[in-house]
Amino acid sequence: MEIDIAIRWLHIVAGVMWIGLLYYFNFVQVPALASATSEASSGGPGPAAISKYVAPRALFWFRWAALVTWLSGAAYLEASPYGLMNAFTLGMAGEVPSAATTYIGFGAWLGTIMLLNVWGLIWPNQKKVLGIVQATDAEKAKARRVAFLASRTNTMLSIPMLMFMQAGAHGLPFFG
Amino acid sequence: MNPLETIQGTVIAGVVLTIVLAYFASLIAGV
Predict the structure, then answer these.
(1) Of the candidates A31, A149, A173, which has its C-beta nearest B4's C-beta?
(2) What integer pLDDT is reported at residue A95 of this predicted model?
(3) ipTM above 0.95, yes or no
(4) Which of A17, A95, A110, A115 is most exposed, with the fewest beta carbons within 10 Å of its own?
């Protein structure tokens, strides 16, 4: 097996874990916490167990999977015929311009923005929300809002990101 | 209204963004 194929395999496994947990947060945990909070006053169990036992574990695998996904993706691009710099310059700087390099480059940029959202916005703010670092109630409320919008932004960006990641090999579904 | 407030709006925004970016990618790629 060529090394670039092994790295790509790792990239896909880590990427499934990252985006799977991203979708868990957006499609499952956010609405579950809202229901648990609103029903806590009428005999429901409340959101505490999710916040204490589930969210920290989900965030652990989420943020490290994100980093492994990006690093393995960058290593793959460099080891593959695309070339890392050719991809990030959208195929415009390479000796032989190729549409596939342009498409994988769009995917690489979207994935990079998403990684920066994870480590720069979601995780620092979730640390305040979950009480891992000290924060006032007002700071927690603001942190919750920023983390929510960054997470939603990544969910939105994941849709074109996943399309572009496979468009390098399989072409665009539109305008191709 | 911010489409990111709802999960439905988020998904729709993602699909719209995909089409827009695909258009620009096709221009850059010259296909």
Answers:
(1) A149
(2) 66
(3) yes
(4) A95
